[in-house]
Amino acid sequence: MDSKQVATIIKVYGGRLAMTCPYCNNEMEQGIIQSPHELSWKRGTKRPVLGRAEFHEGSVVLSKLSFMKGSAVVAYLCRECKKVIIDYSDEKADLNQR
């Protein structure tokens, strides 16, 4: 799914954002995923010894680490499909960038 597709399924209802699940078309809940560590995506299925994204080619930082606040990113949850979507094309998704 590209960022244009994600943008078309995000709607505003009375000042709050809602996303339609691309798998089942139910409304998803907006929330956050947080960690005391950097949040990043890395290729593969094995947990790397060195966790920071800078040590892994092709990695994507979802939320930069703040030593005072940890890291946090906006995410959408579908309870029906048990899927979570993070749209990292929106810089505002990284709560440490706000």
What does this entry look like structurally?
Helices cover 7% and strands 37% of the residues. The chain is built from one helix and seven strands. The strands form two sheets. It has a five-stranded antiparallel sheet with strand order 1-2-3-6-7. Strands 4-5 form a two-stranded antiparallel sheet. A hairpin with a 6-residue loop joins strand 2 and strand 3. The chain starts with a helix and ends in a 13-residue tail after the last strand.
Question: How many angstroms does the end-to-end distance come to?
Answer: 25 Å
Shape: globular
How large a portion of the residues is in β-strands, by DSSP E? 35-45%
| Low-pLDDT residue intervals, each spanning 5 or more residues | none
Task: Return the average pLDDT rounded to an integer.
Answer: 76
Going by helix content, strand content and strand pairing, the class is mainly beta
* Element order: H for helix, E for strand: HEEEEEEE
Strand order of the largest sheet: 1-2-3-6-7
Question: Count of DSSP helices?
Answer: 1
Range of helix content: under 10%
Largest sheet data: 5 strands, antiparallel
What is the count of β-strands?
A: 7
Rounded Rg: 14 Å
